[in-house]
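retry 2 of 3: previous attempt timed out while embedding copper (II) ion. Reduced batch size to 1 and resubmitted. Inputs unchanged:
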Amino acid sequence: MANFNAKFLFCFALIALAAVPSLAVMYVVGDSNGWASGINYADWASGKSFKVGDKLSFNYVGGSHTVDEVSSSDYNSCDPANPISTDNNGPTTITLKTAGTHYFICGIPGHCSLGMRLSVTVAPAGGAAAPGGSTAAPALAGNGGSSSRLRYT
Ligand SMILES: [Cu+2]
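retry 2 succeeded.
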């Protein structure tokens, strides 16, 4: 009986842990500086851990800037010609839908090279994964793990 209760409580605890929701977070890019020239967005992003489901809010006056999601090479060369998505209505809210690194630049000529570019590394949802880390599901105690000790003859 005690053994049964222990297993029951263990399972209950696992279920309770799995049920804790990981709440999505809204990040205001650049904080009070918003989305503007002359801000170091690498500094802004450092130390933050983004995960799938989080949102980025880019604050700017519509028409004054754009938020273009681009490839890593276009990010590095500040080339807005082939954006994955683009918006200039300001403010722009982006939901981070996939894990991996996402790259954003302003498509107004000159602005990207003045600092208007942001890359964020996004971890899978739900885990307590550290940035860049990979997590495996915790190994569950299997049935019969200790049963060999109780062999009847
Ligand atoms: Cu701009």
